[in-house]
C-alpha cells in the first residue's frame, strides 16, 4: 500500500510561513492577546530586551532561475548563459548575511530628571554574524562560460574580481536613556575566521585574427589559518581569531509638533587587528605571444593542443608565506530612518542603510497600514545593496504592552525556490524582531499610537 509523500514542495514554504503569520494575527485579534502577553512577559519579566534574527542572500546578476538550473546540473545550453549576460551589469556581485543580535538594559541608576525619575541605565548588546561578499567582472563571466570567441580585438579587464568572508562575534556595554532610547556602546568584536581572494590587477587580450594573445594576472589569497586542514579535518586550534574595538548605538529623534520620527542606528564603527601567522599566497604572472604557427612544438597550435601550455609553476612568480599582522576596518553598518504618519492609521517610511560589505547603499521606501492598536502591516520597495529593485512585506504584532513582534520578508517570491514564480527573482531574505516599545517621550511607539492596549 502506497502512502502519500510527506515531503513538502518548495512553493509551500512561503505559504506555510504566511499561514503561520496569519494565524498569529487571528490569535492576536481574538482571545490570543492574553496568552501571548503572559508568555512573553513570563520570559522577559520587566526587563528591557530586544532580539533580532536575520538571513538574506542577494545578487545583481545571478537569478534564482539560473542558480536552480546550475544546481540541477545536466546539459546547459549556450542560450542560458547568454540570457544571464543580457542583464549582467559591468560588475556582478553576490552577498550573503546571516546572524542574530540582542540588546538589553538594566534598571536606571543615574541622573534624576525633573519628574524625579532616573534617566540613564546600563545597556549592552551581543550577537554573531556571517558575511560573504563576492564580486566579478562581466568579461570574466563571459570568458568562463562562453569562451573568448566574442572577445577578439579588445582588452578584457579582470581587476576587482574577488571574494571575502568572515564570521564575527560582538559584545558591547554602554548607557541608554530609558525615555528617549538614545544609547551609546563600546565593545569588543571577534572575527572567528576569515578568508579572502582577489585580483589586484589583471587583463586578457586576443587579436581579431586570433593569432596573438596577451594575459596578465596579479592575485592574492589569504586565510586566518596557520595551516591547511589535513586528512583529520579542521581543528579549532588552526584558526587565528582577530580582535577589534567598535562603537555602536542609536540616536532616535521625535517631534512634539509633527507626526515625524527620525532614527540613526550604527554598529561596529571601528577597526580590528589581524594577527600575524595566517596563510598568504601571491601570484604575479603574465605572458604574451604573436603569430602562433599552426604546426610545431611549444608555442604552436599543434603543440598547445597536444602538450598543453609549456609553462610550469616554477616559471610563475608564485609565493606563499605567513602573513604579517595588519589593521583592518570592521564590517560597520549605519542606517537612517525617517517615518511620517499623515493619519493615525497610515505610515510612510524611508530608510537608507550602508556598510556590511555591501557594494552600494541600500534604499527602502514604503507605506504601512495600522488598522488597530495591535496590528501593523505594510509593503516596501527596496533597491541597492547587493541587487536591484525588489518588494518587501512586513507585519508587526503587539504581543504585550511593551513588546512588538515584527516579521519582514524580502522578495517573497524568491522563497518559492525551484518554481516558475522564483525564476526572475535575485534573492530572498527574512528578518524577525522582538523589540521593546520606546520611551514615554516618543509620540509614536514602534508605529502604534499609544503604549496602552
Total beta strand runs = 19
Mean pLDDT: 81
Number of helices: 6
Query: How far do the termini sit from each other?
Result: 55 Å
Number of domains: 1
Q: Would you tell me the structural class of the helices and strands? A: mainly beta
Low-confidence stretches: 1-47
Strand order of the largest sheet: 1-2-3-5-6-8-9-13-14-15-16-17-18-19
Radius of gyration: 27 Å
Main sheet overview: 14 strands, antiparallel, barrel
Features:
453 residues; 14% helix; mainly beta; 6 helices; disordered N terminus; single chain; 14-stranded antiparallel barrel
What secondary-structure arrangement, pairings included, does this model have?
Layout: H1 12-29, H2 32-44, E1 48-59, H3 64-72, H4 78-86, E2 91-112, E3 118-137, H5 138-146, E4 154-157, E5 162-177, E6 183-206, E7 212-223, E8 242-254, E9 260-274, E10 279-290, H6 301-307, E11 317-322, E12 326-329, E13 333-343, E14 346-355, E15 362-369, E16 375-384, E17 387-398, E18 403-410, E19 427-436
Helix pairs in contact: 4-5
